[in-house]
Amino acid sequence: MKNFAIGLTAASFALTGAAHANEKLLQASGCTACHSVDKKLVGPAYKDVAAKYRGNKSAEANLIKKVKAGGKGVWGDIPMPPNGHVKDEDIKTLVQWILLLK
User: Fold this and answer.
1) How far apart are CA 3 and CA 27, in angstroms?
2) For residue 14, which phi and psi values (nearest 5 degrees)?
3) Per residue, what are the HEC states of the chain?
4) 76 near 40, Cβ under 8 Å?
5) pLDDT tens per residue, the chain (102 residues)?
6) In whole angstroms, how large is the CA radius of gyration of the chain?
7) DSSP classification of residue 89
């Protein structure tokens, strides 16, 4: 039981560290100018994005393309500009993290 508790604690710290690293990546990529984790700003909250696409098997690939190229119409009339300045692997990391939010 002690090893189980230690494992849970280690997993919790790892997830917290990953979330912190992803939040820093969001800031560095400019995403937080229009989005936040739990409330709508200019664009939708990341938790709302995750809820909308939960269970959609093509969501990750579609969102990666949308973040890279920009988009309009799914969340209203305000377009999301293209994010060509963000590395592809960073976009993938962020989209995967966003889709895990509850």
Assistant:
1) 36
2) -65, -45
3) CHHHHHHHHHHHHHHHHHHHHHHHHHHHHCHHHCECCCCECCCCCHHHHHHHHCCCCCHHHHHHHHHHHCECCCCCCCCECCCCCCCHHHHHHHHHHHHHCC
4) no
5) 554 444 433 444 344 556 677 889 999 999 999 999 999 999 999 999 999 999 999 999 999 999 999 999 999 999 999 999 999 999 999 999 999 999
6) 15
7) H
Q: Are 90 and 29 in contact (CB under 8 A)?
A: yes
How many residues make up the chain in this entry?
A: 102
Strand partners, 40: 35
Contact yes or no for 40/48 (Cβ under 8 A): yes
